[in-house]
């Protein structure tokens, strides 16, 4: 019998893969490769043209290479993914950086696919001028003594938050897929060969002779809709939260409530939440998500066993009219 128990290393294995991809395209390892593709004279000339003089001076005092902080058009043309490096250095998430509000959405393909699109290519010089002003403000605000370490490590901290979001996202996607497949089993058990299945939906004719569909959706995660007199009736909105850490339970419930409020506004008659209920105070959860009428434990649903599963079977049959 072991005295101590540690969680499996799955999260770190996922994050290592995430980090490895960014090493190739958007971290200092990629920066060093990109520099070798641009002639030294061109890089030096562009630094003088596009980087603020006081920012370059601050780097020179600490013996820091210019390109580790400031971007140039030639460097970004040769290694487009390095725009992600400068974004990470600034500490800005992709969601906040690549938006129409910032005007930077046209550059998204540079980080995602290492491609400079036609519109982005026309704006590359101006992009370097503007992002270098922001980077100059960062450099002069940081302590001079720790500047080399800060420049190396700050992008990793920003990337860590991004990797954590990606990890949570794939947990949610897996949970949604598992719950959807469990609900498909419920329908299959009752309708058998009469069920029409696509990749993301199941359609049957219910006991009233009407077409009813269970489908994956962007928000909420799963929906049940019935066609009545040619109109689509939104029978149920099912929000699925895949995280299992108790510390973030109430955050997940809050996210579910936001989704359900949107569903209610879209005409949903009923809202269900599938979530890990381990150690949960149901009375408190009901206060935090008053839109949720039915609560189901994620583990019981995925394992298709237990009170939550039995209740999900009953409400699914009722909602679909089968």
Short précis:
57% of the residues lie in helices and 12% in strands. The chain is of the alpha/beta class.
Q: How large a portion of the residues is in β-strands, by DSSP E?
A: 5-15%
Question: What's the CATH C level of the largest domain?
Answer: Alpha Beta
Radius of gyration: 26 Å
Distance between the termini: 49 Å
Derived structural class: alpha/beta
What would the principal axes of the Cα set say about the shape? elongated
What characterizes the major β-sheet? 7 strands, mixed
Q: For the largest beta sheet, what order do the strands appear in spatially?
A: 1-2-3-4-5-6-7
Helix fraction, binned, reads 55-70%
Summed up, the helix count is: 15
Work out the count of structural domains: 2
Pick out the low-confidence regions.
none
CATH architecture of the largest domain: 3-Layer(aba) Sandwich
Nearest-integer average pLDDT: 94
CATH topology of the largest domain: Restriction Endonuclease
Number of strands: 7
SSE ordering: HHHHHHHHHHHEEEEEHEHEHH
Structure description:
- The structure is a single chain.
- This protein is of the alpha/beta class and 322 residues long.
- The chain has two domains: 10-141, no CATH class; 170-320, 3-Layer(aba) Sandwich (Restriction Endonuclease).
- Helix content is 57%, strand content 12%.
- The protein has 15 helices and seven strands.
- The chain has a seven-stranded mixed sheet.
- Helix 1 (10-25) runs parallel beside helix 2 (28-36), helix 6 (82-90) crosses helix 11 and helix 11 (147-191) packs across helix 15.
- The longest helix has 45 residues, at 147-191.
- It is elongated and about 75 Å long.
- The protein starts with 9 loop residues before the first helix and ends with a helix.
């Amino acid at each position: 019998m072991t005295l101590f128990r540690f969680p499996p290393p799955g999260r770190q294995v996922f994050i290592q893969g995430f980090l490895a991809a960014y090493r190739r395209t958007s971290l200092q390892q990629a920066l060093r490769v990109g520099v070798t593709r641009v002639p030294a004279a061109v890089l030096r000339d562009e630094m003088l043209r596009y980087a603020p003089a006081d920012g370059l001076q601050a780097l020179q005092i600490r013996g820091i290479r210019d390109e580790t902080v400031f971007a140039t058009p030639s460097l970004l043309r040769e290694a487009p993914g390095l725009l992600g490096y400068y974004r990470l250095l600034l500490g800005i998430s992709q969601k906040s950086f690549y938006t129409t509000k910032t005007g930077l959405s046209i550059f998204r393909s540079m980080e995602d696919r290492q491609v400079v699109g036609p519109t982005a290519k026309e704006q590359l010089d101006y992009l370097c001028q503007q992002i270098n002003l922001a980077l100059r403000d960062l450099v002069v605000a940081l302590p001079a003594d720790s500047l080399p370490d800060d420049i190396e490590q700050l992008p990793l901290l920003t990337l860590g938050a991004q990797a954590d979001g990606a990890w949570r996202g794939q947990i949610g996607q897996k949970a949604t897929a598992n719950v959807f497949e469990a609900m498909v089993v419920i329908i299959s058990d009752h309708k058998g060969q009469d069920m029409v299945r696509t990749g993301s939906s199941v359609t049957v004719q219910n006991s009233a002779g009407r077409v009813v569909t269970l489908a994956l959706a962007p928000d909420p995660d799963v929906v049940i809709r019935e066609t009545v007199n040619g109109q689509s009736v939104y029978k149920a909105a099912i929000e699925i939260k895949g995280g299992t850490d108790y510390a973030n339970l109430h955050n997940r419930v809050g996210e579910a409530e936001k989704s359900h409020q949107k569903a209610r506004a879209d005409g949903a008659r009923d809202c269900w939440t599938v979530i890990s209920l381990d150690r949960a105070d149901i009375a408190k959860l009901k206060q935090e998500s008053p839109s949720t009428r039915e609560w189901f434990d994620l583990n019981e649903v995925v394992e298709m066993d237990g009170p939550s599963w039995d209740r999900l079977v009953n409400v699914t049959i009722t909602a679909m009219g089968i």
